[in-house]
Amino acid sequence: MPVSWFAHAPLRHRCLIAMxxxxxxxxxxxxxxxxxxxxxxxxxxxxxxxxxxxxTEHVAGGEAQRFATGGDIPGDWWTLFHxxxxxxxxxxxxxxxxxxxxxxxxxxxxxxxxxxxxxxxxPSVAASFSASRQRQAGTISPTPNSDTFQYNLFTPQVSVSxxxxxxxxxxxxxxxxxxxxxxxxxxxxxxxxxxxxxVVAAAVQLAALQAQVDATRELVDIxxxxxxxxxxxxxxxxxxxxDLAAQESQLAQTNATLPPLLKQLAxxxxxxxxxxGQFPGQASEQSFDLAxxxxxxxIPVSLPSTLVAQRPDVLQAEANMHAASxxxxxxxxxxxxxxxxxxxxxxxxxxxxQLFKSGTGFxxxxxxxxxxxxxxxxxxxxxxxxxxxxxQAAEQYRSTVMTAFQNVADSLVALDQDxxxxxxxxxxxxxxxxxxxxxxRQWKAGYADYLSLLNAQQTYQQARINLVQAQANRxxxxxxxxxxxxxxxxNRADLAQDKNEK
Length: 502
Hints:
Layout: H1 3-8, H2 11-26, E1 66-69, H3 84-96, H4 98-118, E2 124-135, E3 150-162, H5 169-236, H6 241-256, H7 258-275, E4 298-301, H8 304-307, H9 312-333, E5 338-347, E6 361-370, H10 378-445, H11 450-484
Parallel strand pairs: 1-4
Antiparallel strand pairs: 2-3, 3-5, 5-6
Helix pairs in contact: 3-5, 4-5, 5-6, 5-7, 5-9, 5-11, 6-11, 9-10, 10-11
């Protein structure tokens, strides 16, 4: 635009142009600029570093585990269990689980809200058309210059309005909405990680319950056989009625433990069906064996300094903190003047074929500025509330970080103690089985009373159950550690996009 034109332009044009230019050049965003919190200065998760666990030979899940500090978690960490049925279940859950689909839909909503809010950066253009038929009172001079009292009026019009973002109200609002989108995104990622962990835990529990059912049925068979022997001996006078009654009581007690286990087994199958997006009555029966699951032996453990950049719940809390920071700027900007530039042009005629002819056009430009003077303290207290909300979000972030470190520490300690517990449970099961075998031989040979045999049976039954539970604990707590470390979502192509956008 030539300078000479600007110098000779009408005053209203020059004022409008100068106002737009100043708003574009001098515009700033009030309020604090968000800065990511620094990672905690912590060197380890536990007071005494845990680098490996003890091993238990000849027992499923008895391998020693080694924790590689600073290692990276794979995005499909569940494949480390080397179970094809488990992998298939997790893939089905990621594709069909309705809670995950709801979280993905919530993310789509948040993204569309961001795009909608970005529209505030641009001018608003609207077109309108009005048509009316009117009759003026005879005592009033006619409106049209044709001196008619009854006439038609047609008016097409285009209006443009634009609010220069001088103090950053729009920018801070968009910043807040973008941070909210990130919070929803990390919530969706957390839902996916939790889902995969729950599927692994459910499959492990299913295998453990099946093993307990098998062990209980085996004990029922043993006790049933013993009852039959005692009945034969009692009939011949070689065994007392007291011994027979004690064995029958033991058989009844063992039988009584079976229905609760079968109930839990059926409920666990129902849970797995729902996790993969199926109705319980439509799902095929899945079978898992603890002996066919391979315990991950080399487990990568993220550095404490990187945990806060990996845990989705921590990143969600950080995004909430960012949104609260931007809302402070929104509250401050609402207390400052607001400028709206507007322009309109169109045509008005008494007939459609006369529109846009010479003399029917009109136009107008304007600038409105409004500034709050007295609002009864509303805007002031809204700003103070925004600042308090930021403090609240910051404290929630710190609490989430501490909980994240607690989760990792608890999982590491659990795996360490699980390994020791499995070793003790395996030794107890071996000793109980040896005691039972010796008691049976001694009783048949007449060197031991029946009460000793009965006690050996009860001890062996509990030792079998304890061993199965100890095995299941190692698998389940390994999955819990992967979840506590963030689940490796940053190594999944469908989740890692825009990782650093906050």
